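Quick review question:
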């Protein structure tokens, strides 16, 4: 039988002094005389503090268009000005192949993508697939700048994104007509790219990435890494409303990690920023279905719909625009209550 011996003397172990903890500030004193909710103390928001409560992201102007987040899903079409794209859609010929005009080919593909429903065109000149060989910025610039100039001239109403990790390429691209920076190493612990975005006055996509897939808790670490990247961008002078995040499907993650990321995409909403989802033709989809890149269209559309349903796909970055636009519109109609302009004229 145990007996309650009452309060016992403290037995603090010998050692350094106790912790020096901060005192509470912005405290609303208790008013027991008023009763009700005022009877106990609470905290009030300091006069110079933001609410800190993520709401719907404010609309964002990207070049010639305004993106009103939450109304529908926006589609980013991929233009790879490379000879070694993993997806087989590179616009440069491989050594020994007939040499087409990459600028003419890019403009033709860009026109088709816009006709199929693309809202943004993402132009890149350096491969980012696993195991790729880094490209010198000078060569990357030579690949993308003529294409950006030509596409901007041919499609002046369509925003252009530059897919690069080089601040120098980014600056040249913006001068040539690009409106958005898309950095696949957006979580790198250095300020060069976010500094470029701030100086150039353009929005930036911060994508999650790691050099190897080591995680203790995948989703928690992806969210944490992205939040630190957002803070670096804010510290560099990028306005809050000009930051977009990307969970980095296929980058520094195993196929199992990528599937878990898809299952938990909704956790990214805590960041309070628009989310770009780039799953198009990725190897995880091919491993699940045992299919090559050019046969992963349906799988890409399925992941886009999953992202939209989770509220975590404000932009989808795709190779196959028409099919993914159609899948996104059906998902938008269900999830975001989107309706086509012709809906009001149709009998119900």
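Suggested answer, residue by residue:
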């Amino acid at each position: 039988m145990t007996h309650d011996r009452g309060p016992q003397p403290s037995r603090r172990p010998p050692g350094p002094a106790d912790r020096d903890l901060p005192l509470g500030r912005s405290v609303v004193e208790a008013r027991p005389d008023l009763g009700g909710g005022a009877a106990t103390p609470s905290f009030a928001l300091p006069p110079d503090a933001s609410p800190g409560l993520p709401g719907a992201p404010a609309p964002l102007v990207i070049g010639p268009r305004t993106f009103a987040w939450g109304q529908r899903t926006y589609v980013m079409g991929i233009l790879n000005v490379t000879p070694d794209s993993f997806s087989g859609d590179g616009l440069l010929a491989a050594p020994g192949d007939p040499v087409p005009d990459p600028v003419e080919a890019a403009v033709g593909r860009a026109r088709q993508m816009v006709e199929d429903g693309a809202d943004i065109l993402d132009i890149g000149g350096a491969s980012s697939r696993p195991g790729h060989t880094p490209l010198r910025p000078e060569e990357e610039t030579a690949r993308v700048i003529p294409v950006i100039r030509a596409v901007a001239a041919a499609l002046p109403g369509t925003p252009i994104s530059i897919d690069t990790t080089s601040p120098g390429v980014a600056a040249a691209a913006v001068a040539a007509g690009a409106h958005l920076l898309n950095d696949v190493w957006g979580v790198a612990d250095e300020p060069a790219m976010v500094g470029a975005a701030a100086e150039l006055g353009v929005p930036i996509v911060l994508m999650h990435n790691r050099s190897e897939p080591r995680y203790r808790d995948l989703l928690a670490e992806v969210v944490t890494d992205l939040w630190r990247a957002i803070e670096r961008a804010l510290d560099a002078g990028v306005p809050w409303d000009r930051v977009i995040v990307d969970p980095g499907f296929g980058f520094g993650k195993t196929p199992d990690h990528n599937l878990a990321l898809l299952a938990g995409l909704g956790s990214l909403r805590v960041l309070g920023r628009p989310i770009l989802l780039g799953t198009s033709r990725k190897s995880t989809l091919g491993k699940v279905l045992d299919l090559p890149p050019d046969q992963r269209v349906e799988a890409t559309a399925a992941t886009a719909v999953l992202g939209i349903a989770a509220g975590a796909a404000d932009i989808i970055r795709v190779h196959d625009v028409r099919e993914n636009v159609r899948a996104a519109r059906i998902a938008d109609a269900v999830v975001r209550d989107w309706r086509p302009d012709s809906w009001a004229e149709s009998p119900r």
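Why it works: The domain at 75-338 is CATH 3.20.20.20 (TIM Barrel). Residues 191 and 232 are 7 Å apart (CA to CA).
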